[in-house]
Specification:
alpha/beta
Length: 151
């Protein structure tokens, strides 16, 4: 995770052709946190207004808790700094990649599909990999599934 400025996020939105507009005055502010949950906002947060049922009160709460700007598809009906994008889901992906410094490129994922045996196969693969990881003094692997998460 690295600390970047609001301007750097705007620039990446422009590179991905999803930037629409912005009224940000101080784009040199550092982004310390990103969230779309107003309950988790801390000072320095870039708050994402997402979802079909997004309510303006979430943005108000985020701003009261220290959000530096909103990222949204529609211009907010309030006096605040915002960055308007054409695709909020793509923006979330881009922001996560930038905020976490491309961590998804540092991990290996294995996907399992089918009708039966996915959990058993996942457990088997995890156990085999963990023998290798332990022997090579590496951290154990994890399983994330619709049934459970083993981390």
């Amino acid at each position: 995770m690295k600390t970047l400025t609001l301007q750097e996020y705007i620039h990446v939105f422009q590179q991905h052709n999803i930037y629409v507009s912005s009224n940000v005055i101080n784009s040199s502010l550092e982004v310390a946190h990103i969230t779309y949950d107003s309950r988790t906002v801390i000072p320095g947060t870039l708050f994402v207004c997402k979802g079909a049922h997004f309510k303006a009160e979430y943005a108000v709460s985020a701003l009261q808790n220290g959000a530096i700007a909103l990222v949204c598809e529609t211009v907010p009906n309030m006096e605040t700094a915002y960055v308007q994008v054409s695709d909020i889901r793509k923006a979330i992906s881009i922001m996560a990649d930038l905020f976490y410094d491309g961590v998804q490129h540092q991990i290996c994922s294995i996907g399992l599909t089918g009708t039966k045996g996915k959990s058993t196969t996942a457990q088997y693969i995890r156990d085999c990999l963990n023998v290798y990881f332990i022997d090579n003094q590496k951290p154990k692997c994890a399983i994330i599934s619709s049934i459970d998460t083993y981390d």
